[in-house]
Amino acid sequence: MNCLEFRREKLADPRWLSAEALAHLEHCAPCHAFAHSVDESEARLAEMLRVPVPDGLAERVILRRKNGFSFTPRRRALVATILLTVGTGALYWKALPAPDYARLAIEHVIDEPESFTTTRNADPALLRKVLHDFGGELTAPLGQLRYLRLCTVPGGMAWHIVFETDHGLATLLLILARDMKASGSAAEMAGWHAIAQPVGKGCYAIVTDSPESLDAVSRMVRQRIVWRA
To answer: Which InterPro entries does this chain map to (predicted)?
Structure first.
């Protein structure tokens, strides 16, 4: 098992690993760090979901009747389930911190390794349209376009773009983000490096395999894409 296979398996089911994955984990330090990071995220999520429900909430709501509506036992059970689910979900989302889009971008790149080995929608005209709709104008090429795809990410959608540059392959994600921090973010995980900056209709994130290439590609993006206010 290689590193990409291990990370995909870990993300698919963080609580269970195959014998092959466990064997890989024993001698791969980057994947060990990645697994630890995923486990920490799962633990934080589990802690957030431990929201106590006020005593008697479901009973008080269920026992109320409005406009002569009568609750059968089956209806009571259904309404109780809906109320408890919605109530817990609302408390969970209220407690959930704003996403770390730099880290999210690395996780997405790891989960989509085919973006580095396949060519998809490599049309510069399509890229210009995507950027324009997102709030940016390309003034000069970023490199050889290899991959362009609309993907699902936590909380919304993102355009996943891969370029071949003088500094190696680089990923640019255009994320439709509703709660991007004004100061942006940076992350390093499993040998990948990323930054995220608020622009246009959300934010962009850049992912590369070294700090040096990240600096170079980030500088190129700032110089060659003009973002509308």
So the answer is: DUF3379
Could you give the angle at the alpha carbon of 154 between the alpha carbons of 208 and 53, nearest 5°? Answer: 140
- The candidate with the shortest Cα–Cα distance to 146, out of 156, 134, 159, 161, is 161
Total residues belonging to the chain: 229
All structural domains of the chain = 3-49 (no CATH), 57-95 (no CATH), 101-227 (3.40.1000)
What does pLDDT average to over the chain?
A: 79
140, two tokens? 């000069």
Residue 79 near residue 63 (C-beta atoms within 8 A): no
Distance between CA atoms of residues 35 and 58, nearest Å: 39
Burial class (CB in 10 A: 0-12, 13-18, 19+), 51: middle
**119-138 pLDDT, tens per residue?**
999 999 999 999 999 999 99
In angstroms, the CA 139 to CA 66 distance is 62
Enter the tokens of residue 68.
């002569």
DSSP-assigned letter for residue 183: T
Name which of 61, 9, 28 is nearest 190 in CA terms.
28
